[in-house]
């Protein structure tokens, strides 16, 4: 067969039909940072071990790319699993619980973690990287996969495979240790040079690089408050007997899904009450409650539920929209690409907001602005507000935790709340569920319902949204006075019914297809469940519809 004429990394080359992506990649290592992990062709991700069979352009991906970094995370996880099996035996499996500011929190079953153990594990991982140990992909029947998982004492994976409809499954082998990952893997571990193991709480952190510099593990970031929320969520999972997707699926099969919803909603309401009580305890001073969180975290529903609890305690909350203090659209700052940057704090008229807040706190009558999203201008319609003795302002918005937003308001007058969907449910012991992915599913459903936006639109703008969050929300989360976790254990099973048709509608010829295909593969692990038992004040109703609040 004739050679294929392909544009590879911007240059036309002749490639023999059937050459693997990995073989071709060896000529392009200088184009990437830290090693090539994956290829992309025809809007599809390709593992380096796969053969090239078409003449569409090829791009190689390293860990500076989002999909490349996912491969890095997955393959380092496999590297850790291998090291644990080599040094501690299969009876002490590792659990990769969640991400914490880019690192992975892990625990080892039935073992107390010491610095000496971590040093040995890190050394073993380094040895495998140095020898460029090969990762082999095996496509096996589901029955054979279950048998292998049982041999390796990976009971959680055996249970998960029970609910898989596919007859075959992919197993990745690293020198005799087999594992199942829903992502992709590189050909070997030689490119995984940046990682570290450090003690943390009951386990340890698998420290990883970020996309800006995949060859270096950055300095550890403060995450005490958010870390405690993750650990609390782990306890919630244990309380409800649902720590992974197989256990969630079993709840559905057993007809106990409604009970799971009710317990989860009760825990949410309990936390809302706790935060309201904290505010009430400071009522003599507090005048402004600021609620901030990333997109699709449920800020609006939470604000409404908090206001109800504050009212039940004798306080009178007034909701204030940060959106009404946007500068006129023509004055919105531009980003580095010349586009209007609606995520930066300069989109808010900070002097006007502070002046109005100050006047309200001092008991003055203030005419309130309204932002007209059609004209892109701030308007006044004669609406006024004046605070009485027991009144308190409740304002939600992306910049609520940033002290610059309310710089003229004394700290003792403010109570800051960070809200996010901090999921602790895992697929299995080695495959965590990304909090960002959970929020993207929420947003897809809401965008389709309220904005007539298809999944391609949501996916296409997601990078800009998350970039804004990284710059404007997450750096300030540790400054919050309280944190509310809006994640529910049941939501992905419910959202699946709504979102799967949206994902199948994404055209294969579009860049968004890569993410759509990944999310469909992820959702295949879940059984779908109805939403009939979800109360109408639930945060999830903000996305699926039927909320009793104006959202």
What is the average of the pLDDT values? 93
Give the termini separation.
Answer: 60 Å
Uncertain ranges: none
Oligomer: single chain
Largest sheet: spatial strand order: 14-17-13-18-21
Query: Into how many domains do the coordinates divide?
Result: 3
Kindly state the percentage of residues in helix: 25-40%
The percentage of residues in β strands lies in 15-25%
Structural class: alpha+beta
Q: What is CATH's topology name of the largest domain?
A: Rossmann fold
**Count of β-strands:** 21
The CATH superfamily of the largest domain is identified as: P-loop containing nucleotide triphosphate hydrolases
> What would you say the CATH architecture of the largest domain is?
3-Layer(aba) Sandwich
What overall form do the CA principal axes indicate? globular
Number of helical stretches of at least 4 residues: 15
Descriptive labels:
alpha+beta, Ubiquitin-like (UB roll), 5-stranded parallel sheet, Rossmann fold, 4-stranded antiparallel sheet, about 550 residues, about 20% strand, about 35% helix, globular, 3 domains, Threonyl-tRNA Synthetase, Chain A, domain 2
Provide a brief overview of the structure.
This protein has 551 residues and is an alpha+beta fold.
